[in-house]
Amino acid sequence: MAIVAPVNTAAMPEWERYRVQRAEHEFASVRKEQRVAYILWVLTGLIGGHRFYLGDTGRSIAMLFTLGGLGVWTLVDVFLIGRRVQAVNRDRRERIMARYGILDAPVL
Known about the structure:
mainly alpha; 5 helices; membrane; TM2; TM2D1-3-like; transmembrane
């Protein structure tokens, strides 16, 4: 599991530190939680509630009208939710950091 660590701001000028903190705060406000995705899977798995939460609107609508592919997609999703949450968070963080002009190296 590759997690991106917050940027070290100790050796930065004040204005640069402020910009990084704004970007980190913006990411924290849009970050998706794996726990919430699993809870939504348990409660609304057949109608794709967990996929709506993660922003997969097209697949969510397909699950809604097919009752989770008659349960097959719902069962498969239990194994894929964790990776999907990580991918969504990684993508959102990259977009936010790029918008602020911050290059972010992932921690392996």
